[in-house]
Design a protein that fits this description.
By secondary structure, the protein is an alpha+beta fold. It is built from eight helices and 17 strands. Helix 2 runs antiparallel to helix 3.
């Protein structure tokens, strides 16, 4: 059963954007896991509701269909609470497909986390997105792509340690090896104590005695990386493939995710309807009356199609198992008959038609 996001936030369906933000602010303060008496499950639920209702497009989809088609709920993976990623608070939140939500959560969580980029979610790299184009056939049967992208990745020289090869690590003097700093702030919600990731060691508790020459001790560096993408069979135009931890790396944290948006080129002969493929087949009037066999070209190769006697214009013939793969089975190929009526008749043909007319046909 679909979740009622309005009920979760305690608002009515006609609530304004400000009403939605205000309701979420109250719930975030009440249920935040870092607070005493917080409830992580309810916090995640409220976060999911807010991520949908605060986005105009997703809210419209949810109001119409009871769900969203761009991944309205939180994605799984590293960072955040149950996949609700707070790493994008600085400069806006990056949603699925690279679409930026139209709100800035920094004003809501700035006091709780002590400013943008200050909480645990800051230890996660940025999500990134790319676009690839597929032929219609590739969208049906699947494909592979090797794409070269430029992003922040783990330093190959030091393998992410930040230390020059052959040198040692030492205890971080800022956090005394704990990897985090505990702070108490006076906020609009009262005094809130938070644990911040140490900016010096990035949560590792150790720093290199001699920094790596390539990454200057950061453990990450901007570089080119070849990504192998497996596109499954039966994908649709505009669909997204999520590749966990293939986004940008961050010092001392986990990498973000890579989102691949698929663009399927139109085919002049085929279209798709669910798991079935559709095509048109022009045939002669005589073949429609007497029946015939036509060789049609499917995505699997040539196929002999029997035209039944007396087939009608617009009638659909079904070729089983020549459609879209769906798990262990496949959809069908639907062939729409297009009877080609002659524009001009010879005297002999006209005479034959008149005889058919006299026969009551």
């Amino acid at each position: 059963m679909a979740k009622d996001y309005y009920e979760i936030l305690g608002i009515k369906k006609g609530a304004t954007e400000e009403d939605i933000k205000s309701a979420f602010r109250k719930l975030a303060h009440k249920y935040h896991p870092d607070k005493k008496g917080g409830d992580e499950a309810k916090f995640k639920e409220a976060s999911e509701a807010y991520s949908v209702l605060s986005d105009k497009k997703k809210r419209a989809e949810y109001d119409t269909y009871g769900k969203t088609f761009a991944g309205g709920g939180p994605q799984g993976g590293a960072g955040g609470f149950g996949g609700f990623d707070f790493s994008g608070f600085q400069g806006g939140f990056q949603g699925q497909g690279g679409q930026a939500f139209e709100f800035d959560l920094g004003d809501i969580f700035g006091d709780i986390f002590g400013g943008a980029g200050g909480g645990r979610g800051a230890n996660r790299g940025r999500d990134i997105s790319i676009d690839i184009e597929l032929s219609f056939r590739e969208s049906i049967f699947g494909a592979t792509r090797d794409v070269l992208i430029t992003k922040v990745g783990t330093c190959d020289t030091c393998d992410g340690s930040g230390a020059k090869p052959g040198t040692k690590m030492k205890t971080c003097g800022t956090c005394n090896g704990k990897g985090e700093l505990r702070e108490t702030r006076n906020t609009m919600f009262g005094n809130i104590t938070t644990n911040r990731v140490c900016a010096t060691c990035h949560g590792k508790g150790q720093v290199p005695e001699t920094p790596c020459d390539t990454c200057k001790g950061a453990g990450v560096v901007r570089k080119q990386e070849e990504i192998h993408i497996e596109v499954p069979a039966g994908v649709l135009d505009g669909e997204m493939i999520r590749m966990p931890a293939r986004g940008e790396a961050t010092p001392g944290g986990t990498a973000g995710d890579l989102y691949v948006k698929l663009h399927v080129k139109r085919d002049p002969n085929f279209s798709r309807e669910g798991s079935n493929l559709l095509m048109g087949l022009p045939i002669k009037l005589s073949d429609a009356l007497l029946g015939a066999h036509y060789t049609i070209t499917t995505l699997d190769g040539d196929h002999q199609l029997a035209i039944p006697v007396g087939v009608t214009h617009g009638e659909v013939l079904r070729v089983k198992g020549k459609g879209v793969p769906t798990g262990r089975s496949r959809g069908d190929l639907l062939v729409r008959i297009d009877i080609q009526f002659p524009k001009k008749l010879s005297k002999n043909a006209q005479k034959l038609i008149e005889e058919l007319k006299n026969e009551g046909l």
